[in-house]
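Might you be able to review the protein record set out just below?
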Amino acid sequence: MRRDRVVTSIPRSTPGSFADGTGPAESQASELARAIDRFLVYLRDVRQLSHHTLSGYQRDLYTLQHHCLEHGKSSAGELVEADIRQWVSQLHRRGLAGSSIQRSLSAARSFFNYLGREEGRPRNPAASVQAPRKPRKLPKTLDADQVSRFLSFQEDSIIARRDRAIAELFYSSGLRLAELAAIDTTDIDRHSRLLTVTGKGNKTRTVPVGSVALEAIQRWLEVRPRVAADDDSAAALFTSNQGHRVSVRSIQARLKLQGRKAGMHQDVHPHMLRHSFASHMLESSGDLRAVQELLGHANISTTQIYTHLDFQHLAKVYDAAHPRAKRRDRG
């Protein structure tokens, strides 16, 4: 299928050419404007980009041009990294999303790379500039009473026993969804109350399992043979009604259903139970390193974000724990 090629001429960056109806008053004579137009013609005629893609480049680069002219710079050779950072800050203040700013930066990098190839410009002022990171949305947690309410399963069927064991294990050990679905019966040592799981990057770790979760797992194992299949999935700890390893989608759906049965006012999902585990562990112990190990985080910064901590609290934990962190009293 052929893409829609741009067949019209590239519009000059004259006043009124911007998407918001604005335009730099002196852009017609701007060296930067001419360089942008040459780049757009290259994208159209050589790269043969679609009309939609070309319009995006045009819009982003004309916004950069407008910003530069407002600050007295009309030549691409005058621009330095600070100018690009200032432009990005302006876009951020205007409320543009991080993804939109990243797209604008990508257009700018491509433009300066083009100038480097075609005109021998030695540097790309946009090369090291990054868009503001999108704030990370953390999942909501359940408090201890809500967890107890959620885990009040009615074990009126084989699958209900399995679902309770799954939910208890999520909250007991803070597992990821994929980790729990992949557990085999041989991965759990009920005598030592330990579980070996394989996490991200195919890394294994050993986590403790609480007594309540172990009891729920034992009750499930008592009835598991009634549904377990005699095939490659026979080793799976948690199986479906058909005897195959339970899927991640099924786990998600069953937890959501249990939440509704328990009268929860929000959908309960595996990540919420993992996050609740981490938050409750940290609140009780204050041991950030231990929580990091239990969650299987490679970097402690991930644990800090995951558990609502701020850097001030991190500093206090560090100062209290590290043997060389405390300042010596000077006489």
In short: The first strand starts at residue 188 and ends at 189. The mean pLDDT is 81.
